[in-house]
Specification:
The chain is mainly beta and about 450 residues long. The chain is built from 2 helices and 22 strands. The strands form 3 sheets. It has an 8-stranded antiparallel sheet with strand order 4-3-2-1-22-21-20-19.
Length: about 450
């Protein structure tokens, strides 16, 4: 009977959290002239960087998914929704660090963006911006990082003890992204409890499903690295994690023997571009008894808590890669990306129920979620400055014409010199008239006025 009630229970909880989808804020379109023959609204001024580079890295300390793979992914492209993986009904992330570089951004302040967020959430794949985020953008350059504590959200899905963040975004006025460090973001916490207020219907020995008592750190980094055999550069996006141990309800303890690292390196050529992933090594025990090791060779482990009704599935990696060539914005190259997770904890997985159209589990907590993407033009990123414009014949550009001086506003006014000439003659006439003696003037006496 308890097994037969597990599916309605899961459906009831998913119905409670499946709130209406939040409105996705529209993106700002690139403005353009009404007449296609008109020049753009603005043009670059001064020497311009020749570098073309796109890369981003994102790392989340913890991502909680209620009803994973429960709703289709919506897209404006016809027929593509069926090809994309399904999204969770509700997602909630803690300790998010992201670093982004895009030399092709229309706004100069969007070329390098680094963020450290205390939390973020999404409903059916739609996510608003979260408050309390540390942000640095370039241009202008930021020689020093921004560090500080992040506000701790009050939510039954997760509790944090202490959360800190650090971000830095760099940009060279002449060489653009050819500067080190380029884009870095980090979040770290000293304690975490996930799903600390589970519904009473879920028969767990404790009301905190996952807890991390020690330091847990996420790092995201985008930089330009040397390209072997060339003076140009490659785009490298890296996501790293650092953890000591994880405790799960039921006396389960996971010691992190080796943390994961995920890197995407784009050289502009498919043959030399690569995804590098170092899978974590996790040692699992329950009440002091060794249950096994999670690594690249053994990525999954099921741990029953109450007979077969409540099962916790532990899984690592989940590595997914995508690669493709691209062409546009005046250059072509190669791009690639990957996602991975250090540890997935699934509560009540539904794969053994053999029923259609069910989410993968009642709830899923991902610890150490990682994503990296990188793109570079053919031949790599050029670290140089554009030359001044040349004449069609190949000669140097003509020297700038000397502009006429502005009109003066003092006695040396040059625009209307006749004004000052006429004023001078008028003053001279007044002086002459005043200096001449009065002669031949008749004196008229006013009536009633006596006098000699």
């Amino acid at each position: 009977m308890r097994r037969s009630l597990s599916v309605p229970l899961a459906g009831l909880l998913l119905a409670l959290v499946a709130a209406p989808a939040l409105a996705q804020p529209p993106t700002t379109p690139v403005p353009g002239p009404r007449d296609p023959n008109q020049p753009p609204a603005s043009a670059p001024n001064g020497p311009q960087s020749l570098a073309h580079a796109v890369g981003d890295a994102g790392t989340g300390l913890s991502v909680i998914r209620l009803g994973p793979q429960g709703v289709p992914t919506n897209t404006i492209l016809p027929g593509l929704s069926d090809q994309l993986p399904k999204q969770a009904v509700t997602e909630f992330g803690l300790g998010l660090a992201s670093a982004q570089v895009n030399t092709e951004a229309f706004l100069s302040t969007e070329r390098v963006v680094t963020q450290a967020s205390p939390f973020g959430f999404a409903v059916a794949g739609r996510s608003p911006q979260s408050p309390g985020t540390l942000v640095q953008t370039a241009i202008p350059d930021n020689p020093q990082p921004t560090n500080g504590g992040l506000p701790i959200p009050e939510t039954p899905l997760g509790k944090l003890r202490l959360l800190n963040g650090s971000v830095q975004a760099r940009w060279d006025e002449k060489l653009g992204p050819c500067v080190s460090p380029l884009a870095t973001a980090r979040t770290s916490l000293a304690g975490l409890e996930v799903l600390s207020a589970l519904p009473a219907e879920v028969p767990l020995p404790t009301k905190s499903l996952v807890s991390i008592p020690d330091t847990f750190e996420a790092n995201s980094n985008v930089r330009l690295v040397d390209l072997p055999g060339s003076k140009n550069k490659a785009v490298e996006s890296t996501s790293t994690m650092r953890a000591v141990s994880v405790e799960i309800a039921g006396g389960i303890k996971i010691d992190v023997a080796s943390p994961p690292t995920l890197t995407a390196t784009a050289t502009g050529d498919e043959k030399t571009s690569k995804i590098t992933y170092t899978a974590p090594v996790l040692k699992v025990s329950q009440n002091g008894k060794d249950l096994g090791t999670l690594d690249a060779a053994h990525p999954a482990l099921d741990v029953p808590l109450l007979l077969d009704l409540v099962v916790i599935k532990l899984q690592i990696a989940g590595l997914t890669e995508k690669k493709a060539s691209f062409s546009g914005n005046g250059f072509s190259g190669f791009q690639l990306g990957a996602t991975a997770r250090m540890l997935d904890v699934q509560l009540l997985p539904t794969d053994k129920l053999k029923l259609p159209n069910l989410p993968a589990a009642l709830a899923q907590i991902s610890l150490g979620e990682q994503i990296v993407r990188a793109a570079a033009p053919q031949g790599g990123v050029v670290c140089g400055t554009a030359q001044p414009p040349q004449e069609p014949g190949g000669g140097a550009a003509p020297p700038p014409q000397k502009t006429p001086p502005l009109a003066y506003t003092n006695a040396a006014y040059q625009s209307i010199p006749l004004f000052w000439l006429g004023t001078g003659l008028l003053l001279a006439g007044v002086v002459l008239v005043a200096a001449l003696p009065v002669r031949g003037r008749s004196r008229v006496r006013a009536p009633g006025v006596s006098g000699p």
